[in-house]
Amino acid sequence: MEKISISCGKNGPLVVKGLTNLVDSRGVSLETKPAMGLCRCGESKNKPYCDGSHKESEFDDSRSPERTADKCHGYIGQHITIYNNVLLCSHAENCVKNLGSVFNEHSTPWIHPDNDNVDNIRALIESCPSGALSYSIDGEPQPVMERPPTIEIEKNGPYRVTGGIELTDADWGDGASREHYTLCRCGESKNKPFCDGTHVHFQFDDGH
């Protein structure tokens, strides 16, 4: 079986090899090839596939010196410690929308690990698509989930990668998950190849 991997072509597409599970935002399976290019400049007219538009748009895949600091912060509770690295956040807002008692962006600190039970917090963190959030219990780090290698396309947002697909040519952030992560699709992230939520402010439209 061919090893599944993603590599970042210099100023070009994501080159994906061996993947058989590519899913759009509606859960519909899309065509895959043994090796294929997925657009990450945001300009392809055949999204999610690359059509060469990165050349015309002079896409630059370098990371911005203005990106958020790479620092994983820990929030210690009685029964669980929550970790967060804002640099990795894709701003899906699962946390604040679904467990606002623990994740309250209007308070300081904004994470309160004692404001709900451990099971609810674990389930919420495990649903974080970017891997910005993680946890430990009694000193034991969050277990690595076992899921089939998949790339899911978020509506007007990033590629959501799960299943431990190898990503090469990337500078991983502090505490980053290798099992699940999000990759920029709009071309505007300051932390390429990872998504940093810029698509929200950029109002990226994937045309689907």
What can you tell me about this protein's structure?
The chain is α+β, with helices and mostly antiparallel strands. The chain has a domain at 73-141: Alpha-Beta Plaits, CATH 3.30.70.20. It contains four helices and twelve strands; from the N terminus they run ββββαββααββββββα. The protein starts with a strand and ends in a 6-residue tail after the last helix. The mean pLDDT is 95.
Task: Give structural attributes.
alpha+beta, 4-stranded mixed sheet, 4 helices, 12 strands
Instruction: Give the mean pLDDT.
Output: 95
Number of helices: 4
- SSE order, as H and E? EEEEHEEHHEEEEEEH
Q: How would a textbook summarize the main sheet?
A: 4 strands, mixed
Output the structural class: alpha+beta
Helix content: 10-25%
User: Which architecture of the domain at 73-141 would the CATH scheme give at its second level?
Assistant: 2-Layer Sandwich
CATH topology label of the domain at 73-141 = Alpha-Beta Plaits
Give a topology summary.
Layout: E1 5-8, E2 14-17, E3 22-23, E4 35-38, H1 53-56, E5 73-76, E6 81-84, H2 94-98, H3 118-126, E7 133-137, E8 140-141, E9 150-153, E10 159-162, E11 166-167, E12 181-183, H4 198-202
Parallel strand pairs: 1-11, 3-9
Antiparallel strand pairs: 1-2, 2-4, 5-6, 6-7, 7-8, 9-10, 10-12
